[in-house]
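From the shared-data thread, chain only:
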Amino acid sequence: MQELIQQSLNQPGELEQIYRKSPAAFASAFNDLYPSLAGNPIADAWHHRLKYQPKNSFEWGKGKEMIVLLLIVAVSGCCLHFPVWFNWPAESFFEKYLSFIGFLPIAVYYFFKRQMTIAAFILPLALFLITWCCVYFLQLPPISDMDVLRNIHVPILLWFIAGFVFVRNQLNNTTSTIQYLQHNGNWLIFSGLLAISIGLFTIISVILFNMIDIRLEMFYEKYLLRWVVGAFPVFTCYIILNNPSLVNRISPIIARIFAPIVLITLFGFLVSLFLNPSSIFKSRELLIIFNFVLFAVMAIILFSLTLRMENSINQSGKKILALLALLTCIANLLALSAIVYRLASYGFTPNRTAVLGANLLMFTHLSGICYALFISVRRNTSLELVENRIARWIPFYAAWVAIVVFLFPLIFSYV
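Structure, as tokens:
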């Protein structure tokens, strides 16, 4: 599609015909291509046309793409049935390999959708294989700190590898990195709404059939559940990538609503915490919850910025996000102090070291975003600097997660 657009760029009639054949595919390919075409009058005109044109059509993709999707879904469903077919312990199997069953099919779909060459896909595939070998061959004591820590970080690492495919192995491509974050924000919203809808439909169906003495839940669990779970992640990606405007209007609204709510909540929590600062130093559970809150707020900030980047956040929106970033930096400093205190008091453990590294990364990253936001507010400029700060730090997070997955088991001798 991108080659067709480039070839027909100086032929407006031909370009219009390509668009009318598949509006969603054209819009997706053109948006990916536009940064290299900016300045061309025809490209600029199409950019503004696609940006402001209402899109009500729903695209199911072409036949070849649907066949690829069905094959991916079939393989995912079969993998989820392995514990049943081979009498493997289901709990330990899903604990270690469910993330592979989720993210590898998504990466394969990205490979097809982003029109990568097989040679380019070898490196991400090798990274998946290396990670799987690490999990399979480097066995850790069950329910140990290191085992739990690795099980938490492996899905995050696989998410980064899938993103590596999405950006076509170009880590320095800021635009594609921002698009990947936008895509994930849209995916979270759409998949959440779809999961709620499926759940409500299932509950209503089960209740109705139970009224006539038919145990429909047994049928769902035995024949449908694993296939639906296997299809869900890649199917939602398929829908969003073929219909980029499907949740583009909803996501910024949700971000606009949640940002001030999170700001007020975080401010109230910090005030309460400062009135009793010793609690976070003494309570391990509170420190864990506090760090989860920080990571969640960090995600909200990133998604709020990336989801609304194309909608030119106004000054009030910038101020809210700048204050939220500043409060999160302060909270991060408090968390770092508590972590350093516990390290000094009780020594290094895998969990404390992992959280320390993640918090240091997050604090440094957030400080840069906060600075860029305040510059943008003061000068009333675009968010290009913020966008660069967001995208350039993603590989550092991926590197830290890889260190936790591959090196921590060796460094801490299977603690």
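The first helix runs from residue 2 to 7.
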